[in-house]
Write a structure and sequence with these properties.
By secondary structure, the chain is mainly β. Helices cover about 10% and strands about 55% of the residues. Strands 1, 2, 3, 6, 7, 8, 9 and 10 form an 8-stranded antiparallel sheet that branches. A two-stranded antiparallel ribbon has the order 4-5. The protein starts with a strand and ends with a strand.
Length: about 150
């Protein structure tokens, strides 16, 4: 199961969806920044703090689509907490309109929908370690807490 909660700290609103199809696809966003020093030396810096996550869903009920629509309309443009299928916590901003990608397929008396959510993400915590500790990050530096 995955969840979206708002606000990131001390959440008051939560929506839970089943795991996305094909797992979570993840793309690291490497921003390369170039600076030229006063002696004409070129310096380049690579920042890869944020990532793009993509979650594809199929066979969602109309009720789940409607509940996600209410959550999205209320908090679009805001940073929300996203917990992925392997319990990683992310601070995300939804960057596409997932409601535009909803397609409905009627199978008998049941209507099932597909939806794609694209998120700009920054990790809050990582997968727990096997020895019971947690791998955490404060945004820049990884910390191991045992």
């Amino acid at each position: 199961m995955i969840s979206f909660t708002y606000p990131v700290l001390e959440p008051t609103n939560t929506i839970i969806l089943r795991n996305p199809d094909y797992g979570d696809s993840e793309q690291i966003d490497n921003n390369v920044i170039f600076h030229i020093g006063m002696n004409n030396t070129v310096y380049s810096y690579k920042r890869s703090k944020k990532q793009t996550l993509l979650a594809n869903f199929s066979a969602l009920s109309k009720l789940k689509i409607a509940s996600f629509e209410a959550f999205y309309i209320a908090f679009s443009g805001e940073e929300v907490r996203y917990v992925d299928p392997i319990s990683q916590h992310w601070k995300v901003r939804i960057i596409n309109n997932p409601l535009e990608s909803v397609t409905t397929d009627s199978r008998g008396t049941c209507q099932l929908s597909t939806m794609t959510i694209q998120m700009r993400a920054e990790p809050i915590s990582r997968v727990p370690l096997t020895d019971g500790g947690n791998y955490l990050t404060d945004g820049e530096n990884p910390l191991v807490v045992i």
